[in-house]
Amino acid sequence: MSLLSFEYQNYKPDSALLIAQQLYDYAxxxxxxxxxxxxxxxxxxxxxRIGDNAKALxxxxxxxxxxxKRNIPYNVAIIYMNIANVYAQDNExxxxxxxxxxxxxxxxxxxxxxxxxxxxxxxxxxxxxxxKLLEAIAYTQKSYEExxxxxxxxxxxxxxxxxxxxxxxTKDYHTAIxxxxxxxxxxxxxxxxxxxxxxxxxLAKAYLAVQKKDSALFYAREAYQxxxxxxxxxNAMTASGYLSDFFKELKMFDxxxxxxxxxxxxxxxxxxxxxxKQIESLTIQEELRExxxxxxxxxxxxxxxxxxxxxAIGIAIPFFFLFSNFISRRKIHRxxxxxxxxxxxxxxxxxxxxxxxxxxxxxxxHNPIFxxxxxxxxxxxxxxxxxxxxxxxxxxxxxxxEEARVRKKIAEEIKEQQDDNSPETGLGI
Length: 429
Known about the structure:
Elements: H1 2-9, H2 13-30, H3 33-50, H4 53-70, H5 73-89, H6 93-110, H7 113-129, H8 133-150, H9 153-169, H10 173-189, H11 193-209, H12 213-229, H13 233-249, H14 253-327, H15 334-364, H16 368-421
Helix pairs in contact: 1-2, 1-3, 2-3, 2-14, 3-4, 4-5, 5-6, 5-7, 6-7, 7-8, 7-9, 8-9, 9-10, 9-11, 10-11, 11-12, 11-13, 12-13, 13-14, 14-15, 15-16
């Protein structure tokens, strides 16, 4: 269910959300923290794709709480990274920086090599947004080296593009141009149009800074075309705004007006898309609420059925004891009476274990080691008590049986004596 939800995220996030919610409800029903964590990750990722960063952050924080309980540093590091990226998208750079540095600390402490590639890239990107440029260069360079070692074209292209962004901020435009141009083959190969259009606009700005206006115009137009054709509206807006200002400087007002008009149209389109996303988000949230309520109702029905079953067992056990005591006073084989008494006690002690089990699970959070320790201690207390009570009870039943047998024998002897002593009656001939 987790993998299916993930596959749906990019092109059908509403289905991804519904599956993730089903996963979370199922895991909650089964008491699986691992499953709940996966479900929350799916919910957060899908809301992030929809553009509802607030809900994404809410579910990532819920997942963080679970993984901290489970005490799995690898997962905690991933969640910190996701939270940092959400804050970075919302331009809350200080919070983003706080969480990405926490990620970096955990990864380095435990030497989580598979995470280093992405962590270094994200850390460098967030540090660049926070204008901590020297540190940003160091982390992004590490990301590039890690990606180069494993031949990861996506990360290589992103790292080189980010280095271009950083060096542009330091006003080292020639170095920035070098990195932007080096990134293009990688991002084109993996069809990362977001990074490609960003790099093209970065090139345009860098060429303009070194007074190469023809190159600046060429790459700005390329940036606009790539972002517009691929529906990357935010980048298209940035490129059209840049081109409008560029043509104003050249006093080419017709071209400036054209790109200004495009900017306005793109802004309207983006706002419209945002409204649609908000409506979709609210609609999906209502579907999730209904689905969650249905799952809760089903869970309540299951729990109610279990409570009724436990109640029935609890009522049946005393009757079993009374039945054992009853048959002990009847003419039944002694072994059958002992078996009935032992079975009654066994039911009682197993019933006690059954009642205690949910409490133990809640205390230990499904940790098998702690569960075994608690149940071993419980068994150490219950087993001797069981043997003592069983011995006492079966002995009592046996005594009842013997007493009943003796009473019956005495009653038979008395009856025989009475029959012997009674006068004979009958008619004479």
